[in-house]
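Quiz preparation item.
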């Protein structure tokens, strides 16, 4: 009779278990190193905030706020939401903690779970993880370029293949309204052809039509006016400056005037990284500039730029290219009988004190079954302690990879473990 799980994780939310977790940790470690080089410090904000914070920043008519938020009332009747993304919380924290008083620019990164009530599918979950950054205080295209270059460095540090960088400028409060008029005029006599969502977007947020994936809408927007042809002089020079800097860094990218992103707070630069090796959900990271958000949250005029990386999608990509390296114990101690078991217990602690990973077999089990277990967990070396070894004070060791073996003094076994590990790493 097979056991049946009584409880299941929520739809669209999943456990991260070994061996996958090792891939996650490897990525996180590589990322933290890159953040260090670029001077980004970690910030941790709560996973829930007042609903207002997201509605105001992400925008009332965006997919995230309209359809995807986990919003609920707490016991005091306040409306809370689980964060669907990281930027709003970081900006809230930046203003609340008056971080604008610190020397500019202030550069932060975060890693953590985000929540969106979406239809779960490959690459799309209801709890998913993002690693993101926010750089506050610089209006210059150098900051956009630095952040984009860092994104390239992050993804490069874990060896991701086939990445495509796309950049765009969606203008500012001076030039975007004029462009919107042009779009409205263009789509005005094509309304019948638009999908239901885009018909609504036409009234609420016409730029979003450019982002629609429905084939009819993609077809229909051929020949639509391009935002890049309608930027004001300041936005144009910012965008040209950014491209010159990306060229200087030798970063390859494409300008995509249709890439408008699904959040309202962006101004000027937007960018996205996609991978040719993922299916329909092929965006691995996305970001942009948001020069007005700090002000809207009650802080001083503070230009800012950031991005977020979708962690599940890069884990998926790494799976395709490499797979997880599963860590294995350095030493497995097989012991037979009560006294030997006691010695193995003590020895395991002494080895762990030296920073090595030690595991023990069950002293009541046969040597054969203990060896089988050492093999299954891929231990590098086995120490064997039996009656005979206790009497002589000499312990046998065995390296499982090549069956080489030898003897060490029991009293020196922990130090020997360190030496054996060093030898096996250098051989
Ligand atoms: P998509 O077009 O895939 O819906 P998005 O524009 O909603 O992405 P952003 O809000 O820009 O995504 O989030 C940045 C990154 O977070 C995305 O590029 C993606 O890698 C990841 N991401 C977004 N939503 C999800 C989700 N539901 N599940 C897993 N990853 C996600
Ligand atoms: Mg989305």
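Solution:
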């Amino acid at each position: 009779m097979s056991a049946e799980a009584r409880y299941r994780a929520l739809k669209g939310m999943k456990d991260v278990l070994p061996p996958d977790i090792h891939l996650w940790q490897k990525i996180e470690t590589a990322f933290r190193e890159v953040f260090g080089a670029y001077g980004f410090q970690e910030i941790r904000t709560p996973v829930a905030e007042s609903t207002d914070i997201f509605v105001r920043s992400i925008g009332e008519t965006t997919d995230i706020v309209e359809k995807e938020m986990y919003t609920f009332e707490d016991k005091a009747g306040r409306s809370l939401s689980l964060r669907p993304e990281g930027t709003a919380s970081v900006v809230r924290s930046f203003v609340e903690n008056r971080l604008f008083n610190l020397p500019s620019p202030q550069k932060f990164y975060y890693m953590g779970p985000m929540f969106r009530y979406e239809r779960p599918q490959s690459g799309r979950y209801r709890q998913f993880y993002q690693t993101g950054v926010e750089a506050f205080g610089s209006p210059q295209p150098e900051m956009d370029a630095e952040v984009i270059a860092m994104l390239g460095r992050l993804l490069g540090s874990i060896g991701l293949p086939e990445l495509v960088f796309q950049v765009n400028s969606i203008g500012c409060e001076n030039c975007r309204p004029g462009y919107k008029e042009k779009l409205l005029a263009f789509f005005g006599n094509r309304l019948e052809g638009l999908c239901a969502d885009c018909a609504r977007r036409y009234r609420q947020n016409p730029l979003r039509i450019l982002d629609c994936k429905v084939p009819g809408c993609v077809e229909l927007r051929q020949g639509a006016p391009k935002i890049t042809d309608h930027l004001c002089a300041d936005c144009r020079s910012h965008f040209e400056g950014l491209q010159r800097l990306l060229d200087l860094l030798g970063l390859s990218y494409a300008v995509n005037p249709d890439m408008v992103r699904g959040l309202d707070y962006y101004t000027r630069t937007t960018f996205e990284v996609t991978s040719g090796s993922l299916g329909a959900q092929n965006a691995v990271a996305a970001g942009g500039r948001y020069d007005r958000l700090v002000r809207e949250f009650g802080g001083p005029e503070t230009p800012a730029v950031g991005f977020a990386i979708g962690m599940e999608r890069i884990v998926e990509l790494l799976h395709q290219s490499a797979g997880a390296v599963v860590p294995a114990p350095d030493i497995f101690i097989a012991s037979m009988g009560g006294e030997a078991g006691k010695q193995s217990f003590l020895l395991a602690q002494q080895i762990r004190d030296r920073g090595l990973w030690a595991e023990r077999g069950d002293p009541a089990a046969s040597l054969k079954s203990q060896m089988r277990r050492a093999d299954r967990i891929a231990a590098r070396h086995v120490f064997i302690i039996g009656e005979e070894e206790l009497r002589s004070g000499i312990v046998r060791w065995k390296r499982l990879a090549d069956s080489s073996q030898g003897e060490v003094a029991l009293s020196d076994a922990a130090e020997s473990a360190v030496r054996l590990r060093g030898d096996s790493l250098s051989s």
